[in-house]
Each structure stands twice: as structure tokens, then as C-alpha cells.
Write a structure and sequence with these properties.
alpha+beta; 9 helices; 282 residues; Aminopeptidase; 38% helix; Acyl_CoA_acyltransferase; UCP21603_acetyltransf; 12-stranded mixed sheet; 27% strand
């Protein structure tokens, strides 16, 4: 397949090995892209979009996931600018730009004049990892959720999303799709929670994506009325223990720089910063 200007073209199944070799240069930072590639074989109909690659002298040197999320992979600022030029030709189809800070900023600088004002831009998000047992005591009552937990779990997921993103996932008729996503994570064994003696959910977290190298956690949430009791620290310690034992050896996540309570929790558990992410939301 011929490459376009600046050596950028869509990738497909024949490019999978080259793509995985690229992404696995930074297997934890690129866990989302690795997971998407291996579960879709880079087929657009399964990706729900495209994976673009940039080639230099016939070698894949950078990539960009373009679906609901646009995610640069192993991209320099120059690579991101090349991806931005291609994106301008098709217009904005994504709801979020997210990934390592430098290429996200370079990409945004290339499309900002045409893509309109974002709903929010978060330029400093520490990317955290832990590859050891948790430093804090674990909560022994954190467990995988089941379908029977959905009555408590789903409202907590909606509340977490709304608090974190600033808009409900049910807005605009998204209830069915979001409920299906929560149910999918439950069925995979990627949803964890702790319930009190009366059956109320007091902590939850999910694995968003995973490979043999790493798992990325999302949706960490303690309902407001239960905060300040150490539930998040003990709960996250339990999640780290369970995920490292059952899914992948490294647990990662990214957090807003201004979220001091969450950052304190992750520090107590033993997470360390390894990169900076940025997110632009529409």
C-alpha cells in the first residue's frame, strides 16, 4: 500500500507484527494501543476507526489510533504534526485526544484552528505504574463483581464518569451503550468493588485494557459519603494485588495533576510516575 504525504498511511492486518514491535518499545505507556491492535487485528471494522502509521525508509516509526479516542503511539512532535495534517483532511471524528503530553500537544497545535474549541483540556496528567506488591495493606473484601452487582455498580460507574469527565455517559441517549460497556468489564473479570455489610458499594475500580505486559486501571471511585476512611487506599492496594496476580505484572493509570487526594492514594499504594499524559475532550 502506498504511503501518503509525510509517509503516513492506514495500517491493516499485514502490519500487525510491525505495529506490535513498535508499541512494545514502551509496553506500559502503550497498553491501550497494544490491546486494541491485538483484539482487532488492525481491521477497521473492529477498530471502529483506523490505525495510522508513519514510515521512514520503509520502517514503521510511529502510529496513531483514530477511533472514539485519538492516541499517538511512540510519536515525536514531528510525527504528531504529520498525523495532524492527515486528520485535517478528514475533519474531527474523535471525542478525545489522549496520550503522552508532547505528541498530544503537537497534534492539537496542528488541528486546533479547524477542530474548534474543546470542552476541556488537561495538559498535565501524571502516568503512574506499579510493578511490585502494594506498599499499603490490602482490603480483603475487594472482589471481582458479578452480574448480580449491577444494581449497585452501574450507578456508581455513572457517578464516577460524570464527576471525572464533567458530563454523564448517559447524555444524548448513551445509557444502553454505557451499561453494555460496564457489563462487558464485569463479564471479563475486569471490574472490582467492595460492598459494606448492608450491600452498599463503597469502592470500585476497573481494568480498562490489558496485555501480557501491563493492565491499565480506570474508574477508581469511592462515593462521597464514604470518603476519608481509607477505603480508596486499601481498595487500590487490593486491586493491584489481584490484577498483578491474575492479569498482568504491571498496573498503570493516569491521574489529573490537580487531584491531590487521588495522587496521595496512589503514592501510598506504591505507584510511581513514569510519564506525563494530556487529554483534550470535546
Amino acid at each position: 500500500m502506498l504511503t501518503t504525504r509525510h509517509g503516513v498511511r492506514p495500517l491493516g492486518a499485514p502490519d500487525l507484527d510491525a505495529f506490535l514491535a513498535l508499541a512494545r518499545r514502551e509496553p506500559v505507556v502503550n497498553v491501550f494501543a497494544d490491546y486494541r491492535a491485538t483484539t482487532t487485528n488492525l481491521e477497521p471494522r473492529w477498530l471502529g476507526g483506523e490505525m495510522w502509521g508513519r514510515f521512514v525508509a520503509g520502517e514503521l516509526t510511529a502510529a496513531c489510533h483514530v477511533g472514539a479516542n485519538l492516541v499517538p503511539i511512540c510519536a515525536t512532535a514531528d510525527d504528531a504534526a504529520a498525523f495532524a495534517e492527515r486528520a485535517l483532511a478528514r475533519g474531527r471524528t474523535v471525542s478525545t485526544i489522549v496520550g503522552p503530553q508532547e505528541p498530544v500537544r503537537a497534534f492539537w497545535n496542528g488541528v486546533a484552528s479547524s477542530w474548534g474549541r474543546p470542552r476541556e483540556a488537561r495538559w498535565d496528567q501524571p502516568h503512574l505504574e506499579i510493578s511490585t506488591p502494594p506498599h499499603a495493606p490490602i482490603d480483603p473484601y475487594v472482589r471481582r463483581t458479578t452480574k448480580s452487582d449491577m444494581e449497585q455498580l452501574y450507578p456508581a460507574c455513572v457517578a464516577m464518569y460524570t464527576e471525572e469527565v464533567g458530563v454523564s455517559p448517559e447524555w444524548g441517549g448513551g445509557t444502553e451503550l454505557y451499561r453494555a460497556r460496564v457489563a462487558q468489564l464485569v463479564s471479563r473479570g475486569w471490574s472490582y468493588a467492595r460492598f459494606d455489610d448492608s450491600g452498599r458499594l463503597v469502592f470500585k475500580a476497573e481494568v480498562a485494557c490489558a496485555t501480557p505486559y501491563a493492565a491499565q486501571v480506570q474508574g477508581v471511585f469511592v462515593p462521597p459519603e464514604f470518603r476519608g476512611r481509607g477505603l480508596a487506599t486499601a481498595g487500590m492496594a487490593a486491586v493491584v494485588e489481584l490484577v498483578r496476580r491474575e492479569i498482568a505484572p504491571v498496573v498503570s493509570l493516569y491521574v489529573n495533576e490537580w487531584n491531590s487526594p487521588a495522587r496521595a492514594v496512589y503514592e501510598k499504594v506504591g505507584f510511581r510516575e513514569t510519564a506525563r499524559f494530556a487529554t483534550v475532550m470535546f
